[in-house]
Amino acid sequence: MQSGGVAATAKHYVANESETDRLRLSVRVSEQALHEVYLVPFELAVAEGVWVVMSAYNAVGDATMSESPAAGRAAQRHVGF
Questions:
Q1: How far apart are CA 62 and CA 25, in angstroms?
Q2: Is the pTM of this model over 0.85?
């Protein structure tokens, strides 16, 4: 797919647990669970060469994924993106 110029996208980064009220939902998750459960699929997708990682609509710990410094650091440090 990507060889034809169409980007593969891994989504929704991270802890996307509900479609109901997803714009208002704030997920509470431990650091350990975040790394062991939620980040692994994104690590694998990036390792396989996806071009794009799309953030989730929800928040984790009251910071939306698109604005979360912690999520950004985790993406760089653990996912390699």
A1: 9
A2: no
